[in-house]
Automatic annotation (TrEMBL):
Pfam families: PfkB. One of its GO terms (molecular function) is kinase activity. Coiled coil: none annotated. This is Sugar kinase. The keyword Kinase applies. Keywords: Kinase, Transferase. It comes from Actinacidiphila oryziradicis. The keyword DNA-binding does not apply.
Length: 303
């Protein structure tokens, strides 16, 4: 029997929500009521979904976030336990309700409409054992929510020599400061740094602000990437789209996993990890909700 491969460990820092997802024929208009085709309830948020994907692929994921002790938090913790994600909850015994995201997915297109207050509970201090959490992780992923916590943790991760990955869903206050501590940034087409209006300009901005490896995803269009001495595009597999909710989160969780397993970062490994991550994210779009894709055929780690 060969040696047992140790599971790569990752710390995910960011938003955790309770997602209530409805599959509908159309987004209702003012004062309209309609009956949904289906529903799903799961823990959500970019870092949270990324952690679940990372765990599903075979990694050991820990989520640093705020959930609290409100009765609704039980649904979040149960879902994450089922997904194999460990939780470090900075909200402790707070009785405030967790962030709830209301999501409507249009059946014909898979497009989603989302309403959420996101991370509005105030700054979160880093936990007392944050250095140990960082030391025992191979890679850290940040979604830009709970920004003060993200900056402090990313700075400490850089000092400890750990790889840092950023999920840029949108530009937020403090993003530029966080960029100083990021090794890999993969952003959506909705990520618009100051003075930019296109994915190409966003990519150039990231590279100009000392992010060594950067990429911009654009739905089913090729992912454009750039590194210190090279650049390119990675094709996104075509798949029948049922639900695009969380696809970007899955992309980041899978990318984090493949980078952690590869244990190197060069043009070949970065493009290869993006390609594998795109395959996983595309598969996630083929089923309703953010967890169903995990039930349709093993981990399929690609390695």
């Amino acid at each position: 029997m060969g040696p047992v491969r140790q599971r790569p460990r990752a710390l995910f820092v960011g938003l955790c929500t309770l997602d209530i997802i409805q599959l509908v024929d159309h987004v209702p208009g003012s004062n309209e009521k309609l009956t949904a085709r289906d529903q799903a309830i799961a823990a959500g948020g970019p870092a949270t979904n990324a952690a679940a994907a990372y765990s599903h692929l075979g990694g050991a994921a820990t989520l640093l976030t705020a959930i609290g002790a409100h009765p609704l938090a039980a649904g979040i913790t149960a879902d994450l336990a089922g997904a194999g994600v460990e939780i470090v909850d900075l909200a402790g015994l707070s009785a405030d309700p967790p962030t709830v995201s209301s999501i409507l997915v249009t059946a014909a297109t898979g497009e989603r409409a989302v309403a959420s207050i996101n991370a509005t509970s105030g700054p979160l201090p880093a936990p007392a054992d944050v250095d140990n959490l960082i030391r025992t992780s191979d890679v850290l992923e940040f979604d830009g929510h709970h920004m003060d916590l993200a900056i402090a943790t990313a700075r400490a991760a850089r000092a400890a020599g750990r790889l840092t990955v950023f999920d840029g869903g949108s530009w937020k206050d403090g993003t530029q400061e966080l960029m100083a501590w990021i090794d890999v940034a993969v952003c959506s087409a909705d990520f618009h740094p100051p003075g930019t209006s296109s994915p190409e300009e966003a990519l150039a901005f990231l590279r100009a602000h000392a992010v060594p490896w950067a990429a911009v995803s654009r739905g089913d269009a090729p992912i454009a990437w750039a590194g210190p001495d090279s650049s390119g595009k990675v094709d996104v597999p075509r798949t029948p789209v049922v639900d695009t909710l969380g696809a970007g989160d899955v992309l980041h969780g899978a990318l984090t996993y493949y980078l952690a397993v590869t244990k190197r970062l060069d043009a070949e490994s970065f493009a290869g990890a993006l390609s594998l991550a795109a395959q996983v994210a595309s598969r996630a779009c083929a089923s309703f909700g953010t967890r169903s894709w995990m039930l349709t055929g093993g981990t399929d780690s690609g390695l």
